[in-house]
Amino acid sequence: MPPFTRRADRTARTVGLATAIALGLGACGSGDGDAADSSRATTSIAAPAATSTTPAQRADTPTKDGLYGVRYCEVLLLRSTAGAFSAEVWNTLGENDCPQAEWAKLDATAITTERGALAAILNGPRYWVLDSITSNIRKDAPETTFGSLGMFQAAVIDFGTEAPNQTPYVERSVVRETVFGFAKGREIYELIAPDGTTYVMQAYSQIKDETLTVDDLPRLDAAIDQPEGWTFAVRTLTDDLDVTSTDGVATVIQDDLQNTYQRVGKD
Prior knowledge:
This protein has one domain (17-263). The protein is mainly beta and 267 residues long. The chain has 3 helices and 16 strands. The strands form 2 sheets. It has a 9-stranded mixed β-barrel. A 4-stranded antiparallel beta sheet has the order 2-6-10-14, with no helix packed on it. Helix content is 9%, strand content 37%.
């Protein structure tokens, strides 16, 4: 891959509705939530009920291992009922690895018409950079096929009366019950805010840069345009790392390439 170059217009660029919806799914979550304050957007997700998931409960909740580098894609169906917006989130994880030839055949306009949606958003491909996910998200989840790609319904994101826009590097709260596991010895990629808040990458995206690969991630600092005071860091874990929600809420952000990160710890 050629050396990364910065794009002069990234700071001013606003990520639209597809990015806002994708933030909810990057978390792969379930539950309901409310906005905390004007500086934090909140995504509430309705999905099959799940008990609170913490590392101590791994024995009681299914864990999917071997996820590092696994490719997945999503189709998001935007709907409006009684003036309120929502999006069904359909995911290929566990169904297939979203072959590019089949993914490329999907037509968002045709899917919108076929499914009676306001819009269909093709969100992918994405690749996990974690090792495991512990969650009840697949329990009783509906399944369907888009083109030849089987998918399960990972969530229904509730937006309220306004379909949101979302800028990069802005926190979104996602109510969900998952544990993201990173194994000892794993190289991880972090964004660190000026106040020291740390966000660890859970998945990278080829939506903005289709040439991006896992080998490029250690040099990602040269490709993204963080706000002033933010830093990008690479480190190798000396112990296993579990990234969990706090009181059932995960806090996620995206960079300007739509790579997704979750906040580590929460005051």
